[in-house]
């Protein structure tokens, strides 16, 4: 049988399987196959040179990453003498194709005078890895790998799930399969071992991923981050509209002072923007949230310096930001489609209208009122001026941070219910000064802030934690900005010019 390029074989197998794989099962497993261009790019990032290399491919699918790595090392002038490939794959329908790919990998290695052995574990990687790492009193050693190549599954799991309980045996706190895979892979690497993975960017910020970020950066030195200008670039055939990042890290060595940040439109795009930047520009010293910032050009660096040079934290301003208290399904008994004498306004993101809250709205199916009584009182906030920010934006929206002013002058009420898809700024539970609110709204709606926000926020959710992490102008400056408007937001260009002129952040 003639030799076949292992990556071509893996890709052919993936295409052949495309007609028989169950979409519901793929969704349940959080399964997305690695396209050849993405696999080749990931393999090219691996730098490890050793006589004997043990490779971990967890969530291997049809073996595209193992195949790309083998093709990469066989083409290099300095090669290992021996490679050991270990693949984990839970989906039994993929095992025959994975076996063929690994056989092709062994043949390619033999042609390059590299000894290759391989093994497939047709089991749950998380359960197997936890049991390996936490084998109990009679376990003296566990598996150790030199290279881990991962395109982990993407799926959330519940706090009460078996997966969560397994991970807690190792002190790992996370709620998504992809960060669980990365955490375990890091623990399975030996010192000096390399991890290369493609994941969503969502781990870079937000409170849910903070334990993962802390765990990850305690164990590895982050060396390389590759981002894509197009959302669908990395997994185009699966129509995944997700901001992805390829990360490379080395286990058990001190964090290096600089990190390579690369941006390209697609994985095989020959035109790339590549910069070496200080690690402290990626993870800010003293940042309790350990946000990971991805700054891809000099203008982005200058903007980050300007935004982070603003004088105040939210606490310095005496302000707070909270998430709306009304969760629809929990407050169902008090929700009403339209206002009645016993209700107060219930505000949703659909009520945003050019920087103001317009209520009620004629063409919405959302409940627009909530009964005001002793039982529902804890869900209300007192009437007054607040700045509201959408917690979620649609993928196609141009802006991620969208703010609006709630003003009882336009929505008369004695109290108001704010739905859980909103964040709201307040002054220790009390409403805001009118001028301050409008100045804060202008600042939050300006393009420089939105651009800076995207450096660490790689998904469509805007958490209260994200808003607390920002730096702000002084109270006097915000009030001065508020004086420049007359109860409505100016056009975006005029708004940006106003904020940039006053803050010098453009």
Molecular structure report:
This protein has 506 residues and is an alpha/beta fold. The protein has two domains: 6-296, 3-Layer(aba) Sandwich (Rossmann fold); 320-503, Adenine-n6-DNA-methyltransferase TaqI, Chain A, domain 2. The protein is 31% helix and 22% strand. The protein contains 16 helices and 20 strands. The strands form four sheets. Strands 3-2-1-4-5-7-6-8-9 form a nine-stranded mixed sheet, with helices on both faces. A five-stranded mixed sheet has the order 11-15-12-19-16, with no helix packed on it. A four-stranded antiparallel sheet has the order 10-20-17-18. Strand 8 (258-264) and strand 9 (272-278) form a beta hairpin. The N and C termini lie far apart (62 Å).
**Helix proportion range:** 25-40%
Radius of gyration computed on alpha carbons = 26 Å
Class from helix and strand fractions: alpha/beta
What's the CATH first level of the largest domain?
Alpha Beta
The main sheet orders its strands as 3-2-1-4-5-7-6-8-9
**Could you say which overall geometry the principal axes of the C-alpha atoms support?**
elongated
Number of helices: 16
CATH superfamily of the largest domain: Vaccinia Virus protein VP39
Major beta sheet summary: 9 strands, mixed
N-end to C-end Cα span:
62 Å
CATH overall fold name of the largest domain: Rossmann fold
Percent of residues in beta strands?
Answer: 15-25%
Number of E-state strands = 20
Question: Keywords for this structure?
Answer:
506 residues, Rossmann fold, 2 domains, elongated, five-stranded mixed beta sheet, alpha/beta, 16 helices, single chain, Adenine-n6-DNA-methyltransferase TaqI, Chain A, domain 2
């Amino acid at each position: 049988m003639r030799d076949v390029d292992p990556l071509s074989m893996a890709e052919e197998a993936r295409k052949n399987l495309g007609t028989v794989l169950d979409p519901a099962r793929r969704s349940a497993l959080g399964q997305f196959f690695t396209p050849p261009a993405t696999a080749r790019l990931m393999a090219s990032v691996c730098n490890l040179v050793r006589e004997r290399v043990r490779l971990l491919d967890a969530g291997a699918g049809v073996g595209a990453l193992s195949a790309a790595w083998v093709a990469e090392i066989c083409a290099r002038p300095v090669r290992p003498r021996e490679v050991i490939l270990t693949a984990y794959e839970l989906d039994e329908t993929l095992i025959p194709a994975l076996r063929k790919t690994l056989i092709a990998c062994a043949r390619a290695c033999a042609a390059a005078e590299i000894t290759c052995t391989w093994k497939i574990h047709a089991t749950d990687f998380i359960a197997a890895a936890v049991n390996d790492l936490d084998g109990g009193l009679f376990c003296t050693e566990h598996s150790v790998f030199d290279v881990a190549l991962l395109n982990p599954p993407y799926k959330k799991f519940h706090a009460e799930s078996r997966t969560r309980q397994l991970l807690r045996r190792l002190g790992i706190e996370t709620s998504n399969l992809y960060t669980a895979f990365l955490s375990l892979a890091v623990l399975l690497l030996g010192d000096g071992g390399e991890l290369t993975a493609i994941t969503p960017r969502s781990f870079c910020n937000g409170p849910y991923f903070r334990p993962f970020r802390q765990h990850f950066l305690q164990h590895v030195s982050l060396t390389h981050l590759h981002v894509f200008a197009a959302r669908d670039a990395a997994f185009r055939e699966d129509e995944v509209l997700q901001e992805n990042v390829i990360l490379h890290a080395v286990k058990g060595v001190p964090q290096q002072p600089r990190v390579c940040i690369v941006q390209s439109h697609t994985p095989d795009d020959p035109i790339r923007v590549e910069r070496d930047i200080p690690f402290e520009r990626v993870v800010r010293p003293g940042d309790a949230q350990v946000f990971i910032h991805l700054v891809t050009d000099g203008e982005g660096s200058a903007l980050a310096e300007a935004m982070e040079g603003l004088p105040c934290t939210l606490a310095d301003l005496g302000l707070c930001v909270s998430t709306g208290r009304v969760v629809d399904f929990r407050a169902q008994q008090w929700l009403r489609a339209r206002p009645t004498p016993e209700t107060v306004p219930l505000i949703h993101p659909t009520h945003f209208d050019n920087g103001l809250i317009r209520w009620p709205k004629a063409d919405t199916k959302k409940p627009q009122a909530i009964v005001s009584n002793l039982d529902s009182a804890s869900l209300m906030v007192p009437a007054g001026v607040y700045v509201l920010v959408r917690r979620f934006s649609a993928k196609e929206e141009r802006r991620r941070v969208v703010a609006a002013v709630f003003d009882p002058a336009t929505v008369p009420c004695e109290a108001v219910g704010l739905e859980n898809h909103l964040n709201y700024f307040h002054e220790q539970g009390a409403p805001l000064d009118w001028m301050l609110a409008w100045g804060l709204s202008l600042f939050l709606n300006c393009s420089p802030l939105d651009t800076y926000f995207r450096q660490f926020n790689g998904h469509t959710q805007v958490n209260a934690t994200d808003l607390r992490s920002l730096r702000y102008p002084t109270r006097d400056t915000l009030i001065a900005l508020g004086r420049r408007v007359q109860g409505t937001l100016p056009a975006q260009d005029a708004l940006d010019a106003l904020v940039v002129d006053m803050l010098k952040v453009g």
